[in-house]
Amino acid sequence: xxxxxxxxxxxxxxxxxxxxxxxxxxxxxxxxxxxxxxxxxxxxxxxxxxxxxxxxxxxxxxxxxxxxxxxxxxxxxxxxxxxxxxxxxxxxxxxxxxxxxxxxxxxxxxxxxxxxxxxxxxxxxxxxxxxxxxxxxxxxxxxxxxxxxxxxxxxxxxxxxxxxxxxxxxxxxxxxxxxxxxxxxxxxxxxxxxxxxxxxxxxxxxxxxxxxxxxxxxxxxxxxxxxxxxxxxx
Length: 234
Known about the structure:
The protein is an alpha/beta fold.
């Protein structure tokens, strides 16, 4: 019938005009009493809109934070899509273990491919070649370019001396490697969203164990994993 029934004291009441769906959105409401003004870092932000888990939240709830996107074509779209909003910083680089440059691979622009294929830029050429063949493409449909690489220390300097409420990583198979290098034991973002679909099961489960030892709870949702820490009991 289209009814949504909640207790009047439930934290989700204020969001009934845009009810949460999926593990990530539901966990945000369970962790934070209020979604307004949260601080975030998003690594692999693409254009900021395409299949993006935080676009509406940044706009509606005035989130403040740092977007990181290495490819200039998407970086410019990203800036345009968030034009006019305050409290946002944009870094045109990839996050890596060492600073410098890296070669990143992507499908050639203007190919007739599904929309999700625009989110495939990666350091992992063999992985992209496999996906290209599944789409009926050849190696000639893959292009590459050098991009700037920065470390987590540089990203955190840009972010500033604030607690990180939400960390989003979408690095096409490099997610777990990057998160392992992020010193989560000291930094401890409250909620972490990352893509696990490109990782081996053994690596994914091993990383889950590392997160559990750091006090995170874990929910797996299709291709993504959400890890979160509840606030300490009063």
